[in-house]
Amino acid sequence: MSFTADRLLLFGATGDLSQRMLLPSLAALSADELLRDDLKIVGTARSSLSDNEFRNFAREALEKFLPPDRRGGLADFLNRLSYQQLDATTLDGYADLAAKVGEPKQGLAIFLSTAPSLFGPTIKGLQHAGLTGENVRMCLEKPLGTDLSTSCDINDAVAGAFPEDRIFRIDHYLGKETVQNLLALRFANILFEPIWNCNYIDHVQITVAETVGLEGRVAFYDDAGALRDMVQNHMLQLLALVAMEPPTSFDATAVRDEKVKALRALRRVATGETVTGQYRAGAVNGAAVPGYDEELGKDSDTETFVAIKAHVDNWRWKGVPFYLRTGKRMPERVTEIIVHFRPVPHSIFAGQKKGGGGATMQPNKLVIGIQPEENISLSLMAKVPGLDREGIRLRPVPLDIAMPDAFSGAVRRIAYERLLLDLIEGDQTLFVRRDEVEAQWNWIDAIREEWGSEELKPKTYTAGTWGPSAAIALAERDGVSWHE
């Protein structure tokens, strides 16, 4: 059913995600008059708060996390808010929650940002209170399980109350402008798509590097690790967007059909194609930081770094490795995709240098920066100016597109703004379908199974470096260097 919701129910409304992302995003959308005038937002959590106390809580979060130039109409936004305390594990409070939500004129959108263990009880409570009807859609925040089996349990519980066309699984990376621009880059430019294949591309690198450590996520992260926290969702979604075939249209079904085909084509990772690491005390941005074991307060075999050599086994990508790398306590915070093209088959500049040799050639390289800066850079070979008496000299020259500069009049939005608006309006294109999630878990579970059979333990690396030396060797044995 197509509808624009006039009620939004936020579970976990007093949590960190709500303060940092959800409330600021909704306030910014409200300030830009992108929310319908009658949209009411109901927050719920365990905390005992009145409506006014929740509004004050929201005001403090907005003053802390929303830029001052985007706080217009703050009073109007706060007036949209109300609150209902709820213990999600019992059915007792759901009738009161339903009364607080009221009867929507158009429909209700629910954003579920709670521990996965609460998904099942919450769905039962919503069913008990009559909050799962045809005019209700459900959005799920990760993590969606710890493996394929637990993910299926969660999805089965949700599917018992909502059909797939009313389930919105969120991956906030898909709300980032440059991630969406990857589709435009590929499918709106004749320049790239004809060469976006194994005939012209040598390899692809995807890096998601963080400078932070545990940051209060001690229990969650030690149970998850880098593979499940980053690779299973964000990095595999980026890989799918790079590797997918052209969809028939920019439609939710068409786009997600092609993504899942790419994910299902991932070859099972072989022995020696992964490296894991765990950081030790070091320095990041000039500041001393403790090691993972010190932050955790005990010894652990959880990986804080993982590098993988992946392959997509289809005609387009046969023989093209995808190098994935993610870690905590890296030298810099960066998320980027680097497409390395093959070298030219023959250099006409060979022998141009006096005394032998020729002009140095480097293959073209496309760098898609996602964070902290959103930009696209294409490296091209160009002649160095001069009379060339010693021979022609060539040098790579970047053609840069800094997205904020290219679209200086456009507002730079939080990724959740786009996704929350799509949830309210019912557009699933940038949300993850169940078969995508299961294809991702299939591949991740196979890696963990391989680690278990090898009894693989993380190698240590110093905080502020790019991970264990074995990660460098993983690429360099193929003649590849990580982009840094």
How would you explain this protein's 3D organization?
With 484 residues, the chain is of the alpha/beta class. The protein folds into 2 domains: 7-169, NAD(P)-binding Rossmann-like Domain (Rossmann fold); 174-413 and 433-476, Dihydrodipicolinate Reductase, domain 2, CATH 3.30.360.10. It has 14 helices and 17 strands. It has helices at 16-31, 51-65, 74-80, 94-101, 119-128, 148-159, 177-187, 218-243, 252-264, 292-296, 403-406, 415-425, 434-454, 469-476; strands spanning 7-11, 40-45, 81-85, 108-112, 136-140, 167-169, 201-209, 274-280, 282-284, 287-289, 305-311, 321-327, 334-341, 365-371, 375-383, 394-402, 459-462. A hairpin with a 2-residue loop joins strand 9 (282-284) and strand 10. Helix 9 runs parallel beside helix 13. The model has no long low-confidence stretch (mean pLDDT 91).
